[in-house]
Design a protein that fits this description.
The chain contains 6 helices and 20 strands. The chain is an alpha+beta fold.
């Protein structure tokens, strides 16, 4: 009896020390808690972000025609102005003096041209009579020479009458030639006088423009954005005295490097925002400079923005998100699901509750998503949260949504 009791005690001890049965609950407690998302197909776009500044599409500096004294500044900084409206009056006294001098010079030359034209006309009217006189004189000269020859041959006795007659004929011929030369001189001077007349007329026009330029008006409808002069002061040479801008159209201007410009092209769609303006604008790239600025090495990109409500002001910081590629129905996973091992990307796929480490080849990334070129298929469950604690083959437990 005593032996039976001891045997029972040994059996109970061995049972208590034996291996414990592993239950389903035990397995769940050992599984890594993760969150997964399925691989989907989506439209995806590749974008680049640009930072720049808002610039008025029309920005026109106004200059003084010469260093002149400012008589009156008619408009203030920020004033809205209309095309043709008077902005600045300059002292016109010196310009008026130049105009009067130019007009006097032109008048004198016009008078000289009139006289030359009259002389030329007279020479034309007398041309026929002069030709006849020339022929008669030539005939008389020929006859005189014949008479002289005859006198030398003694065929006609010399006489004082004949000699006197020949001398008169020679004097008349010289006088006729001199008269003809005077007429020809008047005709030859006329083209030169005509040229001087044109130059004088042009000088008058320039002087008139100088007088008009002392009244500086707005070339466009816009806003006065800059005034660099004050009344009684002399206008600076080669520097604007005022600037007028038109902000109904704004250019978002960006300076970008060679790497970024190689991805862009004219017509790329973009979303543009400005600091301080809640509204965003959909627009296209209108211009890309063909060469870099030699001083900065950067290229200029321009995106025009309609601004009828004047929400955007010149100088505001601009940010553009430009679409450079657009892909349709591509495999996409959350970018945060990707891990890297020696710069090689991989993900963990949940296959029947087990973590399967899977290398992937990636493409375009945008808005938190990334295109997968190889490694996964649509519907695969990709570990998004909890992946950092995983090893290949670990058991997985889907985390409950909070």
């Amino acid at each position: 009896m005593q032996k039976s009791i001891k045997l029972l005690a040994v059996l109970l001890f061995l049972t208590a020390c034996g291996p414990k049965e592993i239950t389903t609950e035990d397995l769940e407690n050992k599984a890594v808690s993760v969150k997964t998302e399925e691989v989907q197909t989506k439209d995806l776009s590749n974008t680049v972000e640009l930072s720049g500044v808002a610039v008025p599409a029309k920005q026109i500096p106004l200059f003084s025609p010469a260093p002149l004294t400012v008589k009156k500044v008619h408009r203030n900084l920020g004033d809205t102005v209309r095309q043709g409206e008077l902005l600045l009056s300059l002292d016109e006294s010196e310009a008026i003096k130049q105009l009067e001098s130019a007009k006097k010079t032109a008048s004198s030359i016009n008078e000289a041209v009139t006289k030359a034209e009259s002389a030329a006309a007279s020479s034309n009217e007398s041309a026929e009579s002069l030709q006849q006189a020339k022929e008669e004189l030539n005939s008389a000269l020929t006859k005189a020479k014949q008479q002289l020859n005859q006198i030398q041959d003694d065929s006609v006795p010399p006489s004082d009458v004949v000699k006197d007659s020949l001398e008169i004929v020679l004097k008349q011929a010289a006088l006729a030639q001199q008269t003809l030369t005077q007429f020809q001189s008047a005709q030859s001077m006329l083209p030169q006088l005509k040229q001087q007349q044109q130059q004088a007329a042009e000088a008058v026009k320039q002087a008139e423009k100088l007088v008009q330029a002392t009244r500086i008006t707005s070339p466009i409808d816009g806003v006065v954005s800059e005034i660099t002069v004050v009344e009684k002061a002399v206008t600076p040479p080669n520097a604007p005295v005022m600037t007028v801008i038109d902000q109904s159209q704004i250019e978002a201007a960006f300076q970008i490097n060679s790497y970024v410009v190689s991805q862009l092209k004219k017509g790329n769609q973009s979303t543009v925002t400005f600091d301080g303006v809640e509204q965003s604008f959909q627009a296209q790239i209108s211009n890309i400079s063909p060469t870099a600025n030699p001083q900065t090495g950067l290229f200029t990109v321009q995106i025009p923005i309609p601004n009828e409500k004047q929400l955007v002001k010149g100088g505001m910081k601009a940010t553009a998100t430009v679409i450079v590629d657009s892909l349709k129905d591509v495999l996409v996973i959350p970018a945060k699901a990707v891990l890297y091992e020696e710069n090689n990307p991989f993900v963990f796929i949940d296959k029947e509750g087990k973590a399967v480490k899977t290398p992937v080849s990636l493409g375009v990334q945008n808005e938190g998503n990334v295109q997968v070129l190889q490694g996964v298929t649509k519907g695969d469950k990709i570990v998004v949260d909890g992946k950092e604690q995983l090893n290949n083959g670990d058991s997985l437990r889907e985390r409950k949504s909070e």
